[in-house]
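Dear colleague,

Thank you for sharing your sequence with our group. We've completed the structure prediction you requested, and as agreed, I am returning the results in plain text so they can be pasted directly into your records. Please verify that the sequence below matches your submission; if there's any discrepancy, let me know and we will rerun it promptly.
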Amino acid sequence: MDSVTLYDTTLRDGMQGENIFFSPEDKIKIARRLDDAGIHYIEGGWPGSNPGAAHFFDLAQKITFKQAKVAAFGATRRPGTTCENDANLAALIDSAAPVITLFGKSWDLHVTEIMDNTLAENLSMIRESVTHLQSYDREVMYDAEHFFDGYKANQQYALDTLAAALEGGTRTLVLCDTNGGSMPCEIDEIVRSVMDHFKGLPGICFGIHTHNDCAMAVANAVNAVHAGAAMVQGTINGYGERCGNADLTAIIPILALKMKKNCISEENLQKLLNLSRFVSETANVPPVSSRPFVGKSAFAHKGGVHVSAIMKNPKAYEHMDPVQVGNVRRVLVSEQSGKSNIIYKAEELGVNLGEDAVKQRQIVSSIKDLEDDGFEFDAAEGSLKLIMEKLTEQYKSYFDLESFRVVVEKDKERPCYSHAMIKIRVGKTTEITSAEGDGPVSALDNALRKALSAMYPKISDMHLVDFKVRVIDGSDGTDAKVRVLIESRDTDNLFTTIGVSEDIIEASWQALADSFQYKLSMDHKETP
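Please find the predicted structure tokens below.
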């Protein structure tokens, strides 16, 4: 089985993406997770470009990684100077990183028009910089920036830049599609041509580094491996400049499961989803549900025909077992659902629908009617479970609303604030409480929490994570129905509930009340 080396550049190239930032401490946490997941090389940043990158390498020196090697990234020496007097090369050496990834110009346009340099001096810069860094007993990789554009513009010169790096002493050449404009067929042809050109030289490892400007980054990286590349550079979740880099969360399972390349163990492959989410949370960027392999929707099924088929054999509508990448199969319930969806979902949520086929069809019909009325249960499984329990007479209410009142006040001296008063019944006890909040929902949440906390102490474990409002049909203006989704979590679970009404406060109450009912049902508390 052919081996492919995985090189992660999330902590450098990924940070060039819009709204992506990691502190040095964040980068250390991510590096540990990358190492634990079996990544071979972790590029930590450009120590000559900013203090944060230099601080990361200071922290990294104190860590013993299980298998990963930390790489520092930087440019060749500047034109007209010596390697010994170049500050960027000195910073690479001072980083103490065991691996240094050096980039240089492969496209004559960049050499002559952008750098105002000569082609001969550029070759000297590449050759001498590699030699200089090799003398410090470091593993030196060469990133041929803009290689594919350079090859198409001036094939011989692009090859000469690679030859200069080899003459300097490196044996790792990474071909970069820096502008992300190459097509898979071009990548395949050029990689094969380059490898054929250098086939007489032993021990050369060719790598690939692609960007996603034409939505081809993953395809181009995979094609390069198919053509013979033995290293893939990319980022977790595809973060990176402009449209991003090649997404390792897609490339890794493709290499391991589809191409049968030796790049990661089965155990580490199952960590991929958690790795993706950890990096997403650290970046404070919501995970993309439709992301292949690790997205929430990657193995989600909505159509009734599809669900009926996967209940018999998942291969009918799944190209792989989601468990292999740490993901799970999900069945969604909506107005497009059939009986199979409801049966599967009920079993998943722990609701017994019984064996009565007529009753099952009635449940399907009732849920579809609610969806037609504006509910969206594929996004609110907490409320779906409660609805199923109500339709099957298994629902247990932990409190019942008698009434609520919300007052919103604003004067010129203080910001807008809200006051809520609620009256609920818990068993035979009536509770009347009031509370303030930053808004109506916050006030209702505080009042309900206050009313229930004495009887249900675990309510304190739960807090609201997200609140979304959507106008279902804007044609009626302010009289239109609104859909409110509330995402909540406790120490162990994350769940979403929903409310629909012409009144945004009522819809918010429905979703809020469901979140408390769902939490209490999970805690198995008995009503006093």
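Summary note from our side: The mean pLDDT is 91.

Kind regards,
the structure core
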